[in-house]
Amino acid sequence: MIKIKNLSKNYVVKQGIIKAIDGLNLEIEAGEIFGMIGPSGAGKSTLIRMLNLLEQPSSGSININGTDLTELSSSNLRAARQKIGMIFQHFNLLTSRTVLKNVEFPLEIAGVKKNKRRKKAKKLLALVGLADRLDHYPAQLSGGQKQRVGIARALANEPDVLLSDEATSSLDPESTKATLELLAKIRDEMNLTIILITHEMEVIKEVCDRVGVLESGKIIESGSILDIFANPQKDLTKKFISSVIDFELPQRIIKYLHQKRPGKLIRISFLGEKTHAPYISDLVKHYSVDANILYGNIDEIQAVPFGTLILDLEGKLTKIEASIDYLRSQDLRVEVLEDV
Ligand SMILES: Nc1ncnc2c1ncn2[C@@H]1O[C@H](COP(=O)(O)OP(=O)(O)OP(=O)(O)O)[C@@H](O)[C@H]1O
After folding, report:
1. Which of 61, 154, 305, 316 falls 20 to 30 Å from 92 in CA-CA distance?
2. Which ranges carry the ABC transporter domain (predicted)?
């Protein structure tokens, strides 16, 4: 388990002090894939560099499996760092070494004997699907393959934690998907805890269990992927979500809202099995309310259906209100859009 308490990082510059990370608290369970998303300058890189103490915090603590990294002597910190793997946006492979020798590198540093490290590196390269590329050089590989070498190298010392710093940001969508699938597979097989930093919500949606939204060095919102997608609170979170699913109201509907008309316009968000239930026919049958579907979409978040429906409800106001209460009683999220 990772426990981050009151973590801050200040950079002193000519113009004053930049609070890159500002009193951040976070707990991440073992075996979890935690995504941290934020705009440029939010503090993502600073945070991830502090998690293995490549960057010294100004204050606060980082506790991994019971050990506070900020209190370790430099030799103990070196040992602790071996249990924290890291992968990077630009892969950071050694260009003059073969794929096999790149993966052997951290084992060499850890003093592992040649036969043993060779065997281990081959096993890891088989795990990431590169058993046939051992003698290739990084320049002979695609971006996705380079990142797989990076992942194999990061796993060499059998880490408990894997830090991913924008690891898919330089990859095309197909390689991104394959890399994320690989991360999920190694998490399952090795019970790794993965902290994944990104500015792309698609990445979070694809693979993370939970997400934290970072803005100006603070986590402004966090929760399970399904909760955050179904019920985002902050504007920044909504903005990230709308980059992957239709979250904002279409212009056509905003115009419609400005026209005077009877009835109420509502937005229903569905999650999981609820997408299959016959709620609309219930409104018509039991509440004598007409439901005109103006807009709808169904997406999937990690194989769970997630949908939005915008309905124009017409009928007696008391009946409309009762029908909204009914929908809410079914654990659906219902927003009345009248004042949008
Ligand atoms: N070494 C440094 N010296 C001074 N200021 C820094 C330093 N590193 C980062 N900063 C500042 O700290 C803030 C957070 O930067 P950081 O690189 O962590 O953000 P980020 O979320 O990773 O951004 P990006 O997505 O653009 O990489 C920014 O205002 C940045 O200018």
Report:
1. 61
2. 2-241
The minimum-distance atom of ligand 1 relative to the CA of 46 is 18
Q: What is the pLDDT of residue 68?
A: 95
**pTM of the predicted model, to two decimals?**
0.86
Residue where the block lists tokens 């603590």: 61
Query: Measured between alpha carbons, how far is 53 from 59 in angstroms, rounded to an integer?
Result: 12
Domain count, the chain: 2
Q: What is the pLDDT of residues 70-123, one digit of tens each?
A: 999 999 999 899 999 999 999 999 999 999 999 999 999 999 999 999 999 999
We report the CATH number of the domain holding residue 294 as 3.30.70.260
In whole angstroms, give the CA distance from residue 327 to residue 333: 8
Tell me the per-residue pLDDT of 109-118, one tens digit each, with 9 for 90 and over. 999 999 999 9
Ligand 1: does its nearest atom lie under 6 Å from the Cβ of 318?
A: no
266 and 235 housed in the same domain:
no
Alpha helix positions (H), the chain: 44-51, 74-82, 99-109, 114-127, 143-155, 173-190, 201-207, 225-230, 235-242, 251-258, 279-287, 317-329
- CB 11 near ligand 1, within 6 Å: yes
Asked if 264 contacts 334 with a C-beta cutoff of 8 angstroms, the reply is: no
Q: Indicate if 257 and 238 belong to the same structural domain.
A: no
Which of 179, 210, 242 is where one domain is finished? 242
Q: Examine the domain organization and report whether 232 and 272 are in the same domain.
A: no
Residues 282 and 152 in one domain: no
Residues 280 and 226 in one domain: no
Q: Which of 58, 93, 105, 57 is nearest to 77 (CA)?
A: 57
Q: Which domain holds residue 296?
A: 251-336
Q: Is the CB of 12 under 6 A from ligand 1?
A: no
**Structure token pair of residue 266:** 């509502």
Asked if this assembly's ipTM is beyond 0.90, the reply is: yes
